[in-house]
Structures are given as C-alpha cells and as structure tokens.
Amino acid sequence: MAVDSTFARLEEEVNRLLELLGRLKQDNTELQQQLEELQADNADLTGLSQRLQQAEQEALKSREEVKSRIEGLLSRLDAVNS
Known about the structure:
mainly alpha, 0% strand, rod-shaped
C-alpha cells in the first residue's frame, strides 16, 4: 500500500511537470515570435533612421549651397553700390 501511495505521488509530480513543460514550451514559442517581430521592427526602424540621416545631410548641403549663393549675390550687390 505504501508503494501504491508513493507511486501515485510520483505520477502526480510527473504529470505536474509535464503540464509545466507544456506551458513553458508554449511561452517559449510565443516569446520567439515576439522576438522575431521586434527584430523585424528594429530592422525597419534602422532603415528609416538611416534614410532620415541622409535626408538631413542633403538638407544641410542644400542649405549651405543656398547660403553660399545668397552671399555671392549680396557681394555682387555691395560691389555695385560701392
């Protein structure tokens, strides 16, 4: 009888561990999916960040070109007024 009781407890523990293992596997699968989604989002954001940096550089370059041209025009106007 003691063997039956011990064996029943052992079966209960094994069943509990199997349930826990099943939940952990499911959680792991969900976390892997979330990780993949976050990695894809990160790649998208990295690409957008790079494009934004390029656009900022182009805008600064254009601004400097416009500034240089305006300064040239102002110099020419000053020369005419002198």
